[in-house]
Amino acid sequence: MIKLLKIEFKKILTYKIFWTLTGLYFVFLSLGLLMAEFMINNIVDNMNKHLPIPIPHVTIYFFPWVWQNIAFFATIRYVLIFPAIVIIILITNEFTFKTIRQNVINGMSKAEIISSKLLLIMLISLIMTVLLTIGTFIIGVAHTSDLTFSMVAEKSAFIIGFFITMLTFQVFALFFGFILRNTGLSIALFTLYVFIVEPILYHFLKSPIVFKNNISPYLPVNSVLSVTEYPSIQVLKNIMGLNLQDSISVSACLIPLGYAALMIGIVYCVLVKKDL
Description:
By secondary structure, the protein is mostly helical.
């Protein structure tokens, strides 16, 4: 395991695009998290112009709900796309520069090649989860009065949800990278599917005219995003009638993990059968 990670680190250590995109991810994530409350309250102010009874401003940074709120805003598709593109570039570069073939010549098995990428994805997801946990804790402490341990621990499971979302979304990117093997094509089709194709499918399959039972939550990307589906903002429930998420559901986690396992299995089969 350590040997495989060392090989991956040697590849990315001096790779400027990796560090640039990773830096952009943290910049956009930090700005988004810090501006989330301001943007929500701006929407509330606009709504209040047309309501007889004004809606009070919301706060999203206090314990215990800060875990859920930060995890939600950190897992919207517009933020997750950055680490996913990093994974696609790292994988497709293996085919572009023939390093994957050289690794096989040097004695690596195809299972080890996939394992090295999965270990890197797990490590990236773990590091981002740790950083998000530290940042969320600091934000929560700064915005919560009369803090107790039970308040801090109450909804901390949403951090696990963030990890699962980050992990499975990157596996989805790994799938595109290994199957298509071309950087531009992989990024184009991945972003097209994430931002256009699946949202259209989601609303189409959600219609009771098409299916009596709503199967749209079981679409791959939507199942990933549904792990932390809603922030804990009471106005969403009062005004929009949304059933806010109270906790991380085991079934909601198993669906994207199942997709991830399936995609890894397909990648392995394709890698075994195809020439490098």
